[in-house]
Amino acid sequence: MANDHEGTNPRAGTTVEKFRDDNLPGPGTGIVQTDAVENPGFEPFRARVSDLDPAKARANERRVSAFFIVSIIGSVFAIAAYIAFPIVDGDPGTIHLNNLLLGLGIALALLAIGFGAVHWSKSLMDGHDLVEQRHGTRGTEATRAKAVEVFELGNKESGFGRRTLIRRTLIGALVVSPLPAVVLFRDLAPAENPVPLLQQTMWAKGVRLTRDPSGTPIKASDVTIGSAFHVIPEGLNESEHKLEEKAKAAVLLMRLKPQDLHVSAGRETWNYDGIIAYSKICTHVGCPVALYEQQTHHLLCPCHQSQFDITHEAKVIFGPAKRPLPQLPITVDSEGYLVASSDFTEPVGPSFWERKL
Amino acid sequence: MSTADAAQTVEPTKGQRFTGWAANYVDERTSISGLVKELGRKIFPDHWSFMLGEVALYSFIVILLSGTFMTFFFQASMTPVFYDGSYVPLKGIEMSAAMASTLDLSFDIRGGLLMRQVHHWAALLFVASIGLHMLRIYFTGAFRKPREINWLIGFVLFVLAMAEGFTGYSLPDDLLSGNGLRIIDGLVKGIPIIGTWISYLLFGGEFPGEDVVGRFYVLHILLLPAILVAALGVHMLLLIINKHTQFAGPGRTNDNVVGVPIMPVFAAKAGGFFFIVFGVIVLIASLFQINPVWTYGPYDPSPVSAGTQPDWYIGFADGALRLVPPGWELELGAFTLSLNVFLPTIVLMLFLLVVAIYPFIEAWITGDKREHHIADRPRNAPTRTAIGAAGVTSYAVMWGAASSDLIATHFKLSIESVTYSIQALFFLGPIIAYIVTKRVCLALQKKDREIALHGYESGRIVRLPNGEYIEVHEQLDEYDRWKLVSYEDYKPLMLRPDAKGRITNGQRLRSRASRWFFEDRIAPVTRTEIEKSKHAEH
Amino acid sequence: MANKPDTTAQKSTVRRDRGRRHPLATVALILVGLVGTGGAYALFTTSATAETSAQAQAQIDEGAKLFAANCATCHGLNLQGTTQAPSLIGVGAASVDFQVGTGRMPLAATGPQAEQKPVQFTDEQVKALAAYVASTGPGPAIPTADQLEGKNTAEGAELFRINCAMCHNVAGAGGALTGGKFAPPLAGVSATHIYEAMITGPQNMPVFNDANISPEDKANIISYLKYLDETPSVGGYGLGNLGPVSEGLFIWIFGLGAIVGITIWLTAKSN
Fold first, then answer.
1. Are residues B140 and B240 in the same domain?
2. CA end-to-end span of chain B, whole Å?
């Protein structure tokens, strides 16, 4: 039999009956079994080899100590590795070695402590199961009555329930008091309205299309059929808000055979001899849509797999996006460089509530 | 015991005298002896699945230790700098100070890379072990009274762990995490009416701005950990107050806890286990690379990498976004409602809400107000187990959807067919999982019944005098049988008029739910049945 | 890598110039290099063409025979193309060297895209085919060895991220395209083939002509990819460089798996 420190017999019968005796809340749809199999009580204790054979116990003792000694070796090894395998500038192999050997030393030190301690507890420490009685989680009736009394006294002595004016004004004050804290957070962002910012980009009439990241302008003749240029507006690299502007103005430039393009009314002048420019920012949640397939003329977003058909003005043909990628109207300037004819005619990137305003 | 008796008679050694003096000193100032008396011999039941929460706790400690090391080197600033460290392919490239200091930590501080990898692997293990711990709690019904509140606190810990993970993932300001933030920006902007403003406030202006890393840093190392530690404290306190559940077994009842005492066995085991978990994490970190931010490069809104995915625990959200078919965006007059973004957000919130309040739903359906300290075997609560399996399946489907592109390339499929299949699986998978799991549970219960009544097949074939061959069935002993027969039985709720003679709609719903929950069930074996079967055998 | 940075811990500070090297030094160095290699190249070609022209003609003839035997069925006897395959007039030697030299051509079976297979021809045969196709019309030539020597790995890495990573993954691990197509992994691909792929745009890959990415920058991109090939992954085994998905699977299967195994040992009764 297991040690029974509390001295109570664990043969308690079925749980349901037990609860009935305690006059606790009911079982709901639980069936109270009268014919349930009886709990047979604890299994006889099975002694371990260490309990039976002192030689085995001593062997285990040595084993546990061996683990702890291995741990010390691991720690020393880690310190030695830290010193003996420094990072040599310009040699990534040394970082790998440092990481590997330092890590292995520390891992050995920790694992050996762990396995030693667990082995100790399993093989040498007292192996008997002990029993602790549970008591209902709720306080005893007396305690609960006392708690109620405390509240009642508090209520009576303060008049919290009786003095309604005080109570109501206090609740009102407490509700209102956090509001300044909410207001304080208004200046997390600048004062200006974000909506106009989202509706415009750096592109404007005459702004040259330039290569990302060098910012060199692109001649129409550079863009051969099948090419894809990653484009930023001229002057972006000098812009004060470079990343914010780039996050809206990044454009993909491609050239198709003019007869492959299905140009809708009003957009006839937006391409230049089959050269077309589309916003790279996905209309779904804003990943850069830059996977251009030059034979199928599909654009794929690598984040959520929306697909856009470039021959049909970047119409969505697959995936969660709804709107086509905005097209940037382009033409060439007097020197033959590609320039924007205007900004995008709609906000780029993911949809937002005020998009159409 | 004998050693204790011996100690009383023998003169205490110098070390013992010091220990005694120190204990007295502390106790006279803290009355800690009461605590030791209360907790020192508390009993913990032994079962492997009861260690999962500890894995989470220990990974969290590892995270705190390695994270603190990193704060000494990391600069949470998005100020642009030109990198001049030792990683050649980024030399001279403009990046944020956060990214540059992460690279310096990885490439120029001995052990810095190890600490980064320990931190990140521990974080993945932290959330994974919380997940597995929650599944254990769920499938054994250990969330039932009196532990519903602790389930809720555990759920909060799970959400906090995910938030910690995401904010930490974003800190290096690399290309991968930057695109992750970009997706968060898109998600936030998809919230009707207030979305644009929330994004604007979060990023301190337009995306990406120069604020978000600093803000996430404060959340990551101060606010979230503080809440997490507080919630963890309450979680453990309630664990002590409620005492641990145990599986049914001989001698184990709803009114006792059987196991090993904290001092010394459990302390040695759990303490040793801390070192093992720590050691395993360090071992993984020294052998396997994680999050090579130098390969991703600094964040730039123009490039993106194929296979851009969040860490695994945010995967289900990313997958949900991928599953939406084209065209789900509405224009309400002048306003735009991005259902393609907002709807998955709502679905995920509902999913998490159901997880959070499940204990209360089940308690309402069963009407059971008793305390439960015996953990159910999953088969003995078929409907609950089936619901769990359906939930796990829908989570797994969303998670799988987040790697649809990798599934396509690795199994030579087209991304479209993978997406269509996962879309179908999103609806069919949970239903199939529910039905199959429920049937499997019932079948296992029937098998348990057979074994409890007639024993198990011994593999011994005997020829009877009449020439008939039979296989001898070996009877179980009463201890093994008890494990199979000791579970509770429920019946569906009967619809009865209340005191005023009315049947409310709430009651109708409840009785329907109860019927669904309990209509298929196998009653536990009774004493009479065992007696009968004994007579039949003889 | 000649100028090793000093070893003080804090390497990155805000826009500073240590003055170790004058900014114009790079420009001067590149100029010297360009003039040097360009001059040498010009010298080499003028003196060599006359002697090798006869050899070249023999190579073209050999190529024509191979073409007629192995390629003409689909691409037409005069390279004009058929309903099954495109015209090869003007695709250039680079294109042939890439498609045949990586085993993509001859095509074994139609599928979403031509797959890499064991190369069907010897190196000489590939070069002969390339020479033959190039002789029928001007097109991108096979790059010479000095065209593949990049000088600025960092610039190459940046261009790689902007122009290539969205399909081929930042670590060159490859990625999915539409309709079952995919961008192949780049590890171990020869510098010549990478260069050829950029200038010819095989299959659905866009063309990156010299006006888009200059020859020097192409070489820089190659030098970055070679850096990735040659440098051990510093943090340990890279798990296929597939990012968070493989990391997540690893921690669930092996990390948590190992720990669950340990918990079972931990709670098992000792014998």
1. yes
2. 48
- Residue A146 host element (H or E): helix A141-158
Interface of B with C in 398-437 (CB under 8 A): 402-403, 405-406, 408-409, 412-417
What pLDDT, in 10s, does the model give residues B272-290?
999 999 999 999 999 999 9
- 3-state DSSP assignment of residue A40: coil
User: Which position has the higher pLDDT, A179 or B532?
Assistant: A179
- Count of structural domains, chain B: 2
A142: Cβ contacts below 8 Å, ≥ 6 apart: none
Check residue C233 and report its DSSP letter. Answer: P
Is it the case that residue C1 has pLDDT exceeding 80?
no
**Domain stop point among B350, B376, B402:** B376
B331 and B474, same domain (yes or no): no
pLDDT of residue C30: 59
Residue A319's H or E segment, with its range, is none
pLDDT for C72: 86
Pairing of strands B374-375, B246-247: parallel
Instruction: Tell me if B448 sits within 8 A of B469, measured CB to CB.
Output: no
Q: Domain limits at B529?
A: 439-537
Q: Do residues A250 and A281 make contact, with C-beta atoms less than 8 angstroms apart?
A: yes
Task: Report the alpha-carbon distance of residue A45 to residue A41 in Å, rounded.
Answer: 12
Give yes or no for A125 touching C (CB within 8 A): no
Domains (ranges, CATH) in chain C?
34-139 (1.10.760), 143-243 (1.10.760)
Q: Which of residues 85-104 of A touch C (CB under 8 A)?
A: 89-90, 92-93, 95-96, 99-100
The residue ranges of chain A whose pLDDT is under 50 are 1-22
ipTM score assigned to the predicted complex: 0.92
Spatial contact of C248 and C240, defined as CB atoms under 8 Å apart: no
Question: Residue C65 has what DSSP assignment?
Answer: H
Identify any residues that bridge with B469 across adjacent strands, giving them in sequence order: B463
DSSP-assigned letter for residue B467: S
Q: Looking at the predicted structure, is the pLDDT value of residue C2 above 70?
A: no
pTM score of the predicted model: 0.90
What pLDDT is recorded for position A11? 39
Q: How many CA atoms lie within 13 A of B321 on its CB side?
A: 30
Distances (CA, A) of B452 to B272, B334, C220: 38, 69, 74
* Domain end call among B376, B405, B423: B376
Residues B212 and B311 in one domain: yes
Alpha helices in chain A (DSSP H): 15-22, 49-52, 54-84, 92-123, 141-158, 164-176, 179-184, 194-199, 242-249
The confidence band for C4, taking pLDDT boundaries of 50, 70 and 90, is very low
- Candidates A46, A94, A126, A295: best to mutate against C (most CBs of C within 10 A) is A295
